[in-house]
Each structure stands twice: as C-alpha cells, then as structure tokens.
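SEQUENCE WITH STRUCTURE:
===
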Amino acid sequence: MAERTTAIRALFTDVCLENSRLQGITQLSATELKGILESFTKSLSAKCDEISALKSENAELRAKMASKESTATSDKPEPRPVSYAEIATAKAGRKPKPKNAFTKKALDSCRETKSSTKFMVDVPEGEILTKVKSDLWNKVKGKLKNPRAKTLVRDKTLIIIPDDTVTLKVLKQVSNFKEVQPRQPRIIIYYVDVNISETEIADGLLAKNPELRLTQTDIDAMSVKYKLGLRNGCTTHYVIETPASVLPKFFVGMTRCSVKLHKTTTQLFSYFDAKNTDTHHLKCRQAQSACRHCKEAHDSRECSNKQMAICANCRQPHKASSLACKAKASLVKSLRRRTDFSTK
C-alpha cells in the first residue's frame, strides 16, 4: 500500500510539473498540495488498518467453526444396524391413515360405466342349468347366426347381457326372457310438505316450474320410489327415479325445494344389512332383525352392548350405518354401475 501511495504522489508531482512547464495556471500552492496528500495518506492508512483487523477476526471465526464441527462429528455415535424384526414391528404398530370408503373419484368412475339391458331366465325345478342354457342359445341362433352376449349364473337364474344392438333386438323377441332395464338415476327433493301427495308433486313440477322446461313425457317417465325424513315431521324428502335426459334440468332451480342427486342406498331401521337395498324398502322379506351396533338378532333400540360395535355387513369394528363400511361402499358402487346416466 505504501508503494502505491508513493506512486500516486510521484504521479501527482509529475502532473504539476508538466502543468508548470506548459505555463498552465495552478490553483493550489505547494503547501496546500502537501496538506491534501498528507490527509489522503492518513485516510488510506486508517482503511488499511481496518481491513487488517477484519481479516484477523475472520480468521479467528473460521478457526472456531472448524473446531466446533470436529467436536460435533467426534461426539456423534455410530449408527446401529437395524434388524428386520424391528422394521416389521414398526410397520405393524403404525396407525393406518383414515380413508373414506365413498371416494368421489371411485363413484365418478362407476358412473361412467356403461349400463345396458339384461335378460333373466329362471331355471325350472328338476331341469339342468346346462340343458336350459343350450336350448335357449339354440333358439337365439335360429334367429341370429352369431349372437354376442355375456352369460352369468346366479343361483337358479340365468342372466344374459347383450353386447350389441342386433343381439338386443333378437333377445327381445324371445318369449320366455324377462327383460330388465337399467336402473334410472334418482334425485331427492328436500323439505316437501307432508300434505302434498305423489300425484301433486308430479303436477307441481310441470305446472309451477316452467323454468325447468319439463314436458308431460318427462313427468310420465318419473316415478316416486319412497320418502325419507322424520316420520312425524311437517316436511319430508321424496326420492324420485327419472331418466338421465331429464336429470340436468333439475339443477336449474326448484321453488322452495332443493334438489340433489341421490347417491346412497337405504337401510331398514330393523334390519341393518347393506344387501337389503331400497327394492325391499316398502316390503321387507327378512323375518329377524339385525342390530346396528352388535349385529345380533334384536332391535337396535334394545341393544345392551352398544360399546362393542360390530358391523353386520363387513364384520369390522364399526356400526352397520357407518359411512366407512366397505360392504356398503361396494353396494353403492354396484348401484352406480347399474344406473344408466347416458342421455339418449
């Protein structure tokens, strides 16, 4: 740094001498120039001392950090090898993450499944299933050389699901086939006055809601399935089955009543079995009750073992009416797959 100061001073002196030689006018005297150079030299020396002090502090901090890192590394214990038994025990003790059985993605996927008409044939007593099936296919092949259909057997019932429209038309012409149409979508209308009858509901939808743009054909295609809600209340909820072509119109707006797609299934109060769907809602075929708490054959209101919940459907530790029941979720998905949501 002193060498640079000397060089600057010599350069400044040369500039002044060159200016005098060229007969220039210098505004500062030699004494003033000397004072300026001395103040500049003092400031430069002070900055050099400050930089040296900072460098020494930086070196001390680096040395302290290096000593701390070496101490921490030496104090850290060596990792102990983990056995397979410890890993298995840790996985077994880990709590499973709660998962809702009714996931929206799964239900939407079931809704996109194409549902078609199926035909059912009951096997008479004393006859063999294979013979009945062979006779039926011979009858169908007499009208169509290459029928395409899927055949299922459930107990003593033969189920035939056509794969194309040609086979569907031929199967409709067979006399002893029982045709079963796809399940129609259902909507639920909330908070309807209990004094309004089922006929008045259909007439009210057509006459008092012109914004829905319903026709008499749409009204005739609807059917009231059952009612939900409090038994002695002043309002009730109606579940109505309607074609998919009418379904989007209900989401425009309803007068004093909210409308929603009915996605779940019903369970009778006395028999909490998910298999007992709304087809048996008005006429239960079960002779014994099934408790919603402990699955035993008694009324849920008279259960004395409500603390030990056991599902009557999946035998898991929860009530039969729980939304987490996998058996109920499977039934809802099956109903969604068998529902025709396609608009024709």
In short: Residues 265-321 form one domain. Residues 276-283 have pLDDT under 50 and may be disordered. The two ends are 94 Å apart (CA to CA). The beta strands are 118-122, 149-154, 157-162, 178-180, 186-193, 223-228, 235-241, 259-261.
